[in-house]
Design a protein that fits this description.
The chain is of the alpha+beta class. Helix content is about 50%, strand content about 5%.
Amino acid sequence: MTTPLRPLQHIAAAVAAALLTLPGSAPALAQDRQPFDAWLADLRVEAEAAGIRAEILDASLTGLVPIEQVVQLDRNQPEYTLTVERYLSRVAPQSRVDRGRRMLSEHSELLARISTQYGVQARFIVAFWAIESDFGRNTGGFSVVQALATLAWDPRRSSFFRAELLAALRILNEGHIAPGDMKGSWAGAMGQTQFLPSVFLRSAVDFDGDGRKDVWGTTADALASAANHLRNIGWIGDQTWGRAVLLPADFDRARASLDISLPISDWQAAGVRRADGADLPTRQLQASIVLPEEGALSPAYLVYNNYRSILRWNRSTLFALGVGSLADQIGGG
């Protein structure tokens, strides 16, 4: 999911969301806002003007109350300082690698068709699926409309979440899911792909042809939507994401930046080598050096265009490294 809502390190949101339960009302919320009922009435007028049917608004907004814990979580998102090694041990344990390989085999025909149509390698589709929702098993239990309405009413990031709420109502209006079934994270990320509503509208697809774009319960739609989104954010289907490398002792760490992109041969000439000490690939891709940790002991990575695409899905260095590492292991690398 491309979203600015998650903390820098992807695992924080997943842990926090898993710990929360859905509350019923929010009597303790601060009183310096517009009364929620008045705010909701204004929102309904805007939604009606945008073409949302009255029956959808009735089903989605009637009796709606803000969720106090959603506001609290948005304002107090926990921050975790994790090393790359510890993060990868959490998001890409051997059990997940093994399950990913089973999913790659079990859905091989479907993944082959998706990969051919959208130009995204199957192992990466499965890796995103694994990290975002544990292969569709953890998709969130919050009402997306209720959570987004809470965040849109709260003044901190009202404009952003109001747009997402209207996008969610549009999804309901188009009939892709029933209002009561639109579940997701506390921040409105939905389904097996954990798309925000705006991303759903841009990238979700009806791959099984049943007339609905169902990223919640239909694996074909979810995986194809993930691949379509990756294509939309610049994925190149005949390239990988990057690799761990060794840097020479005299390497200038100021050169470790996504703002510096050079042919692989230039990094080879500068003394950069594969993690096992072998020469770098001879293919002349543009590449950058990434050092995800502070200090001289940080692991080093040589990353390509697709690494940048992963960051457009989720702007977290650790998330990008997690997807790349997991995809490599699922694919047998």
